[in-house]
């Protein structure tokens, strides 16, 4: 048994399955590059057979990522597996991750297959995948609620067919740490060829125990791969949070005795990037990456930390990439300084045209905001007018009038494809008026499920506002994010970004459907 814990990141696959978290190809590429800087061992880049968009995103990631293994999910059938191999074949190192459900409930009600049929299909798909690559992971979906003896037969059979990693998901987040750890341990003991594969845990967070369960799977069960996502992003209550598992294993090395290859100083940049890209805001008291994670508010704690930081701190903020908000650039900074900061932040814009567009945006921002922080730069490159993706709806101009006692009024100019629209509306507030003006032209009929505003950098009203708008229409839920020092403008940008996502009609196959 190796003493290295493999970190398998599934932000771009399981994380993206979270309603509203869908990402464009360029956004996924940017996150994949950050995951590589974070030194995750495996990047699950998507589910190639689910849509052309996912296929293309995986292919682009496979083409640029050099250090991490790139992986695609595939249902246990030849078509899905071939599609995954097709998307991945440009990668330095790649893995096919195939799965089928093994619990009685899923086999009977969802798959309508007998256990023997499931066993055969699992074997056949691993055999097929092994002819395409030597790195094959098999997942027993709803594994934790499966019959132990049957699951052991499936695991033994797929290892015989050449599966190199066996993953036992707690698909519905039903496990309790001790029980899950025991389950993995007992399962491994029942599988005669268990030592021929790496065992992996994949826990959902429905009862808030995904991290604890994963760690129990490692400590008690002997698993040596953890599947996780940045910020715990994922469907329902999310997945196991990468930053928490990694910092637990590192901080309590005395207990776990395991190595992780993660570059922990890249944790905060990864957390910010995922949150700004998806619009899923990190709660302030979230472990490791929440705004308060290292803030000592009470007088007693502050006094203690000032005398000796380990009185109340078990990790160092700088070790996970927290840096005091420092001014990085200003109005007088030139293009070279800006370009260098992009490089330091690990932002690779595709062309000089994109760098020029980003620099123009930066100058525009610096005219309105005297201090530019890293977070501002990250938000700025996420702007669709900077990246090569040409969005359908684009904000051109916005003016609004509001006065106490008067009904606010907004006038918005925006592009829809090649057409330019001008629209006016009144609303309860300037944000409401602006969104109504846009909706009066677009007529999306979408329902606003969520509207939230956050300061990108804390501690000052000079900060840019970052707005998330979540829309629901025709069974789809999408998030749009917009940033600007003017929160009305940020809101209009966020609304248009969400409409753009609704506009791209990519149909997807549900991974667990
Ligand atoms: O939760 C789950 O069971 C999964 C599998 C598809 C690996 O995500
Ligand atoms: Zn999952």
Structure description:
The chain is of the alpha/beta class and 513 residues long. The protein folds into 4 domains: 273 residues, Alpha-Beta Barrel (TIM Barrel); 30 residues, no CATH class; 57 residues, no CATH class; 114 residues, Alpha-isopropylmalate synthase LeuA, regulatory domain (Double Stranded RNA Binding Domain), CATH 3.30.160. Helix content is 39%, strand content 19%. The chain has 17 helices and 14 strands. The strands form 3 sheets. The chain has an 8-stranded parallel β-barrel with strand order 1-2-3-4-5-6-7-8, surrounded by 9 helices. Strand 7, helix 8 and strand 8 form a beta-alpha-beta unit. Helix 1 runs antiparallel to helix 11, helix 8 packs across helix 9 and helix 16 packs parallel to helix 17. The model has no long low-confidence stretch (mean pLDDT 92). 3-methyl-2-oxobutanoic acid (KIV) binds next to strand 5. It comes from Aquabacterium olei.
């Amino acid at each position: 048994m190796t003493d290295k814990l493999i970190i398998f990141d599934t932000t771009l696959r399981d994380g993206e399955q979270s309603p509203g978290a869908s990402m464009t190809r360029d956004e996924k590429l940017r996150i994949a590059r950050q995951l590589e800087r974070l030194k995750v061992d495996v990047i699950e880049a998507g589910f190639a057979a689910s849509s052309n968009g996912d296929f293309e995103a995986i292919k682009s990631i496979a083409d640029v990522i050099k250090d991490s293994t790139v992986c695609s999910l595939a249902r246990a059938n030849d078509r899905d597996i071939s599609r995954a191999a097709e998307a991945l074949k440009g990668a330095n190192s790649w893995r096919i991750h195939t799965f089928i459900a093994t619990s009685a409930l899923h086999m009977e009600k969802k798959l309508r297959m007998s256990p023997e049929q499931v066993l055969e299909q699992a074997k056949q798909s691993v055999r097929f995948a092994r002819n395409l690559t030597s790195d094959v992971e098999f997942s027993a979906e709803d594994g934790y609620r499966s019959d132990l003896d049957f699951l052991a037969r499936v695991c033994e059979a797929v290892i015989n067919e050449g599966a190199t990693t066996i993953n036992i998901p707690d698909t519905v987040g039903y496990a309790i740490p001790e029980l899950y750890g025991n389950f993995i341990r007992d399962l491994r003991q029942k599988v005669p060829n268990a030592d021929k594969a790496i065992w992996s845990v994949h826990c959902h967070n429905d009862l808030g125990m995904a991290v604890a369960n994963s760690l129990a799977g490692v400590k008690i069960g002997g698993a040596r791969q953890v599947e996780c996502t940045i910020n715990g992003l994922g469907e329902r209550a999310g997945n196991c949070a990468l930053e928490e598992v990694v910092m637990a294993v590192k901080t309590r090395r005395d207990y776990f005795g395991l190595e992780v290859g993660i570059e922990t100083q890249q944790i905060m940049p990864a957390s910010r990037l995922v949150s700004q890209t998806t619009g899923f805001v990190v709660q302030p008291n979230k472990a490791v990456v929440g705004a308060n994670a290292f803030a000592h508010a009470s007088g007693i704690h502050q006094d203690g930390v000032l005398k000796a930081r380990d009185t109340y701190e078990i990790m160092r903020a700088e070790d996970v990439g927290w840096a005091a908000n420092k001014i990085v650039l200003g109005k007088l900074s030139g293009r070279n300084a800006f370009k260098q900061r992009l490089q330091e932040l690990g932002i690779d814009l595709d062309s000089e045209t994109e760098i020029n567009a980003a620099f123009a945006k930066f100058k525009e921002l610096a005219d309105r905001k005297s201090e530019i922080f890293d977070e501002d730069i990250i938000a700025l490159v996420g702007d669709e007018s900077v990246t090569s993706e040409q969005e359908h709806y684009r904000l051109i101009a916005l003016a609004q009038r509001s006065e106490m006692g008067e009904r606010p009024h907004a006038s918005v100019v925006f592009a829809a494809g090649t057409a330019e629209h001008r629209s006016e509306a009144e609303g309860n507030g300037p944000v409401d008026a602006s969104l109504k003006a846009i909706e009066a032209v677009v007529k999306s009929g979408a329902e606003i499920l969520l509207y939230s505003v956050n300061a990108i950098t804390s501690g000052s009203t000079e900060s840019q506002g970052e707005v998330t708008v979540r829309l629901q229409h025709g069974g789809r839920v999408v998030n749009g994010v917009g940033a600007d020092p003017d929160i009305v403008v940020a809101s209009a940008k966020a609304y248009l970004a969400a409409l753009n996502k609704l506009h791209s009609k990519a149909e997807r196959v549900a991974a667990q459907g």
